[in-house]
Design brief:
434 residues; 20% strand; Rossmann fold; 3 domains; alpha/beta; globular; 4-stranded mixed β-sheet
Length: 434
Amino acid sequence: MSKTVALHTLGCKLNFSETSSIGRLLENDGFEKRDFDEVADVYVINTCSVTDNADKECRMLVRRIQRKAPEAMVVITGCYAQLKPQEIAAIPGVDLVLGAAEKFNIAAHLKEVTKGNSAKICSCDIEDVNEFTASHSINDRTRIFLKVQDGCDYNCSFCTIPMARGKSRSDSISNVIANVEAIAAQGAKEIVLTGINLGDFTSSPSLLQKEKGEAKSKANKQSEGNFFSLIKELDNVAGIERFRISSIEPNLLTNEIIEFVSNSKKFMPHFHIPLQSGSDKILGLMRRRYKRDLYTERIGLIKTMMPHCCIGVDVIVGFPGETDEDFQETFNFLHQLDISYLHVFTYSERTNTLAAEMKPVVPVSIRNERNKALRNLSYQKMQYFTNAHIGQTRKVLFETKNKNGMMEGYTDNYIKITTPFNQAWENNIVEWKI
């Protein structure tokens, strides 16, 4: 009788793509997948550690498994597992902790672990993590998240991701194209390109030499294999009708990328561009690689070339030293910017980061008030953006899920459409009057 496995993802789209790949590895090893709410022999939780809440959620999920299936094997992997393996191993019920280099070796590790012993930790020094492992999601064949880059060389003062994910590294362009073609053969219509620092994509020079069949200077290799090179190549791949860029740093979102997307039939008019603060003072404390003027410039160029483009923004509230005036500056900056929605994060102290030692600390109650104010602004921004398109006809890709007689889809510029379920529209692009 085959064993069963249930998987759960905490965190970002990249984590989601990796969980799917881990699931496929286990299925290839003879496991049958179960929903996370069902009883299974093995539970895998792929963790995030961007906020305290992600850590707490991991503990809560382990307790829930203990109540539901006390004999099940519990595996924790992901960023939290890399950063604090001992802390996770001490959680009652956890059997196996897999760090960044070991998560894709899960099938082999499961063969060596016995329930009831103390948790086994398979971690590593993050400096030793230098391989790239491609992954993609397949839970919904309509929209696929494809990881093309991992790790980060930036040193933002609030962030643990370089410690959890390691140095920036990427797939080769030829391998990305092969993965896209394989995904297209499964019937998917849209691919979302994901990475930790996606704009830092640099195809392996050695692979590029093989692709081009000639030796080039280092500078040429870099320019041949950057993110702009990748999206130009992908625009010509048959079978996929839509590409989206999941998130890209403003300093890496070049004018040529914006111009290319504006003229592309496959890359959607939708950008997600982290800001984090509208105050140059706070951006400096955060050690971000741009100031607000550059951000304003990027938004202005996008909206000049694509007035209909949807723009999402990440912002952190309550960073150490953020005064009421600093927050008001951020609020006013976002209010006047022609953007569409916000992802608002409440700052939380992360161990071993520079920001954790910074003063003065903003009280949690004020952090929460600021979060609420920006979430309200986000709602207003999205309402305004949607209303500006009422009466227009845009292309909507409808998803395959029947949700209580309704179905959902997104326009090219990321306006969510909900309508009564129609099987003929599943995984199809439909001309839709908003």
